[in-house]
Amino acid sequence: MRILWFVDVLRAAGLTVHEVSGWRTRGSATFDPRGIMCHETRGSRNSTDTAEIRVLLEGSATAPPPIAQLYLSRTGDWHVIASGRCNHALVGWAGPFKGVGNTGLVGIEAQHALGEPWTARQYDSYVRGVAAMVRHTGWGVAGHKEHQPAGYGHPSVKTDPSFDMDQFRRDVAALLADEEDIMPALSDREQRQLLKYAQDVNYILWQGAQKPDGSGRTDFRQYFYDLQALLVEIRANQQALAGKDWVDEQEIVDGVLRGLGGMDLDEVAKVLRTALGERAAELGRKLAATS
Question: What pTM does this model have?
Answer without folding.
Answer: 0.63
